What we know:
Largest sheet: 5 strands, antiparallel
Oligomer: single chain
Strand content: over 45%
Order of helices and strands: EEEEEEEEE
Shape: globular
Number of helices: 0
Distance between the termini: 15 Å
Structural class: mainly beta
Low-confidence stretches: none
Amino acid sequence: xxxxxxxxxxxxxxxxxxxxxxxxxxxxxxxxxxxxxxxxxxxxxxxxxxxxxxxxxxxxxxxxxxxxxxxxxxxxxxxxxxxxxx
Length: 86
């Protein structure tokens, strides 16, 4: 959606059953849920995926690097915004 010298902003949209690719965040990230969702998060180095519920408006801050993928395991479309801080 936007990239400049300070941030990179992504729009994330996943229909029910849809998964995003495995990817790495190397800088701090702020993830904002625009819709409620039940997600399955597969994180590199973990034996099992984690199921998380993200209510509409939920804000998640992650300062450490992570390689993961997310899958919408709910029944409604998930929409969110990820903001990476350079």
